[in-house]
Amino acid sequence: MTNQQESPTPEPRRLACSRCGTEFGCDLSGACWCAEETAKLPMPVKGEDCLCRECLRKAAAEARSPDGAQA
After folding, report:
1. Which of 10, 13, 53, 57 is the most exposed place for a label (fewest CB within 10 A)?
2. What does pTM read for this prediction?
C-alpha cells in the first residue's frame, strides 16, 4: 500500500533585504534566484539575513575589490 498524499509545495518566503529593504521571495526548495548567481558570499553576516539580487551583486563586487572598500 502506498501513501497517495503528497506534500504541498511550500510557498516562497517573503523577505526584505537586510541592506536596502527591497522585498523579494526566497524558495527554500533550491529553486531560489540566488542559486543562479555566480557570486557566493558567506551568509549571513552578523545581523543580516538574505540580500536582494542588487545588494548581493554589490557586496560581491566590493569583496572582489583590492581594498575591499565600501562604495
Report:
1. 10
2. 0.65
